[in-house]
Description:
The chain is mainly β.
Amino acid sequence: RDSDNDYLNIVTSPDTTICDSIDVGLWVNASGGYTGAGNPYHYQWSTGDTTANIVVTPQITTTFYVTVTEDCGQSLIDSVTVFAFSGTADVSPDTFICAGETVILEVSTGDSFLWSTGDTSQSISVSPLHTTTYYVTATGACSGYDTVTVYVQPLPVIQIMASQEILIGGETTVITASGADIYLWSSNPNDITLIGQENNNSITVTPQQTTTYTVVGSDSILGCSTTKSIDIYVDPTFYIPNSFSPNGDGINDYFQVFGSGILDYEIFIFDRWGELVYYSKDMNEHWDGKKDNSVVPEGVYLYKILISTPINKDKFPYYGKIILIR
């Protein structure tokens, strides 16, 4: 080349950042080198373009290379990087929950965040009472927004009723639940007559004592459930013998009251002169016809029994007489 010519110099457009794959113009300016001809510079971009100015629309961050050659064959290479970012946020997918449940929503892109709830963290916990759409704006190299909908399935509204809520020991009642697709029953205390009916909407039971029956009713969509209970009260049943013979023959040797469904129990037995000969608070105990380990004579004795039940917690008195036969 002619030694009087300057060396070739090139300057490219600066690196740049774009959002959402928009068009961006790139350029290269050449100077120096052999300039005797009318068009001394030849351009070759990595895109295949051969002009000094080009327009590109990169989908991802891309480095574009350009080679400039002057007429004497001197060449220089430079590059421009276009950083391509998305202008949208990437938030959790739509989700389904039961009413009362909590779900975590999270956005995966961005450096700072603003949710429609006012929260500014990357993830939030929400417990909507009804189906709700949440908006989030994520800001980083680019800003964008996204939405997520939380669909709320209402809980079943359970109704429960019994054919009888107060029973005498040994009686039967039918308990029916409605408002759900799936049912699961339990009892406290355990009632063996419930066995085999746990998944029915209607159960037939014979409690021996006051019992709480609980049903968990669920829907068949998400399994959302509601719990409902009913108390079936059982009036006490008890038997008071009217005579006994404590003679040691193994037959009717003790006086004892039998019953069920009783909360509290007291018995007082008096002789004909009103003197207390026996007292107990335990229905499992019995009177053996003695007072202070001494045998009492046969005859008529009077009793007073006090009991309370789940229905009537005030102690109710029963009075009567016992015939003691030797």
